[in-house]
Amino acid sequence: MNTPTTHTLRLAGIMVLMAACTHQAPQQEKAPIRVRTEVATKDRPDAATREYVGIIEEAQATAVSFTAMGTVRRVHVSEGQTVGRGQLLAEMDDTQAHHLLEGSQAAVRQAEDALERYRLLHERGSLTEAQWVEVQSKVDQARAQLAAAHKNVADCRLVAPVAGIIGRKAVASGETALPSQAVVTILDISSVRIKFSVPETEMATITPSTPTRISVEAIGRSYDGGRIEKGVQADALTHTYDVRVSVANADRAMLPGMVATVSLQPQAGPHNATAQRQCTVPLTAVQSRVDGTLFVWTVGADSTAHRADVTIGRTQGNRIAITSGIPDATRIVTEGFQKLSEGTRVTF
């Protein structure tokens, strides 16, 4: 049987529990997600800029080889080494070449001695003109063979015909080198070329003097590009053309094989007039729903993420034009949108 005292105690306990629940600490708010953004505007000066990923190539590659077969005695250079014109690169065993040289020297001495002896006979009239000419011819032949022997000895030393950097060493000491077999390859990288692929629909907007900017992340530098060379044969599968832009490389910081980003500003014309009136965003910033509609993530004034439906235009390198759906000066999420949901707080 409940007494008034028991009822009072129960009521007091309920009130204590309610007070405890009321004073519980509020749940801690989630930290905002860090993203990368850019402001979309139709008036941005680089709206028509196209970016391509390219590979650095040497301006010229020279394969250096011996002219005769023989055993390589020593290679004096290593890959990546800078060499000057005329510098010794490798030596071949010249024992046989020196033997031939000594034999040629002896033949010349013999022929010249015979020439002096027959000269007296020719002056006395005891030697016919035909015999005298034959003696002179033998001297000339001996001297020609001696010159060839000297060249054979010299050819056992391989020197650099041009200055550059050793790109590849194909023969090591002790190996047999064949005639015209490349021993080393010398790369001229005082200037380099950036090779990149361009879709066929964008080739008409590129001219030999189109302004370019080259960024090389490996060395943290950017360069102004020079003259552009356009390929004329398309890839059968991708329908793209190889394009190369020359870049000065006086300090030889850019090396063949490095990856470079080519920012290209097409000249105004009928092919890209529309692109200049529209803002562009990276291709990866445009997302697709299950029903095929497209959207981008935008950042509101309260630093929260929201989806914005968009329609797209033509691609421009690794960017795409947005024809509608984004008001001017809208902040677009370009990286880090994978963890976003509607209303997520972000920081950038």
Please describe what this structure looks like.
The protein has 348 residues and is of the alpha+beta class. The protein folds into 3 domains: 33-44 and 275-347, Beta Barrel (conserved putative lor/sdh protein from methanococcus maripaludis s2 fold); 50-59 and 188-274, Efflux pump adaptor protein, beta barrel domain (Elongation Factor Tu (Ef-tu), domain 3, Beta Barrel), CATH 2.40.30.170; 94-155, Helix Hairpins, CATH 1.10.287.470. It has 4 helices and 23 strands. The chain has helices at residues 4-22, 95-124, 129-154, 273-276; strands at 33-34, 36-40, 50-65, 70-75, 82-83, 88-92, 157-159, 164-169, 176-177, 182-199, 212-216, 221-224, 228-230, 240-248, 259-264, 279-282, 287-288, 294-299, 305-309, 311-316, 319-324, 330-335, 346-347. The strands form 5 sheets. Strands 3, 5, 8, 10, 11, 12, 13, 14 and 15 form a 9-stranded antiparallel beta sheet that branches. Strands 2, 17, 18, 19 and 22 form a 5-stranded antiparallel beta sheet that branches. Strands 7-6-4-9 form a 4-stranded antiparallel beta sheet, with no helix packed on it. A hairpin with a 5-residue loop joins β18 (294-299) and β19 (305-309). It starts with a helix and ends with a strand.
